[in-house]
Amino acid sequence: MQTRKPIVAGQFYPEQYDLCVAEINECLNEAGEPSESLPGAIVAGIVPHAGWTFSGHLAAMVFSAVKQQHEKVNTFVIFGATHSYFGRLPAVYDTGSWLTPLGEVAIDQELADAVLKSGAADSDPDAHSHEHSIEVQVPFMQHLFPGAKLLPILTPSRTESIELGITVGDIIKAACDSANKHKKIVCIGSTDLTHYGPRYGFTPMGTGKQALQWAHGVNDKKFIDLALKLQPQDLLTGAVENCNACGPGAAAAAVAAAKKLGSEQGLLLAHTNSNEVMLRKMGTTGADSVGYAAIIF
User: Fold this and answer.
1) For residue 181, how many other CB atoms are within 10 A of its CB?
2) Which end of the chain is more exposed for a tag (fewer CB within 10 A), N or C?
3) What is the pLDDT of residue 293?
């Protein structure tokens, strides 16, 4: 049975158990309580995937919100960005387990088989070997939901990812029907927002403070508004045109699944960027910035 070992432990988050748990708790404390009332049921979310120092508290917000509304989650389907995978269909890690500093988490093979049987994705565990966007979420689910299973799926910036989200929504509805009404499966889409500045080769508004404000207040907001309105196709098309997400397929899949599962409106828990975090934590800013959002459905 194959086990995926962590590739960014010690870089994006601590590689030792005690330090990892301590930083998760720091992220949860920083996340605090939601400023708005949460929906009665949460079926999906969007989280960022930078190093925990920068965006861990936003990922913590989403997982914490799920925990507040659902004491137990059986499986998290995490749609990941595709920084180094260029296949046409989404890629499923369909067997075995994933290892993190908090231990092993089992793959939901039954759910994986259903997704693969639908033809909406391919089995390709190797595609996950060098991708961090799902890995950095797993310790949060392990800490808050011991025993929960995982279904990792890399989702390209293509309409196939929307079709995948719809299919996963249908599969979840069937798996959590009246006969299994206590079963809970939550979908998570992993993406950062606008990567702005010379480092990223994206400076349509030039450089400087006003340009970075545009990236945050205008370009990111286009993406967020479409996500909140559950418009996966416009979100995906807009992200490709506006360069305001590095994992638009992951977000689109999560939005499509949420819509299929009955969500009518998303809730923005927080929106920030790396420059705001640097200023708050380190007292400095830079010429580049990456946006982060925490959204639930």
Assistant:
1) 8
2) N
3) 98
Residue 192: name the closest of 208, 216, 163 by CA.
Answer: 216
Neighbours of 220 (CB within 10 A): 26
- What's the predicted TM-score (pTM) here? 0.97
d(C-alpha 169, C-alpha 181), whole Å: 15
Sketch out the chain's domains with CATH numbers.
3-296 (3.40.830.10)
Show the tokens assigned to 122. Answer: 């391919």
Nearest by Cα to 247 from 33, 35, 21, 85:
85
Residue-wise pLDDT tens digits, 2-14: 999 999 999 999 9
- Name the DSSP class of 218: I
The DSSP call for residue 122 is E
Instruction: Report helix angle 17-31 to 52-69, nearest 10.
Output: 70
CA distances from 200 to 16, 157, 196, 289 (A): 31, 18, 6, 9
Report the amino acid identity of residue 103: G
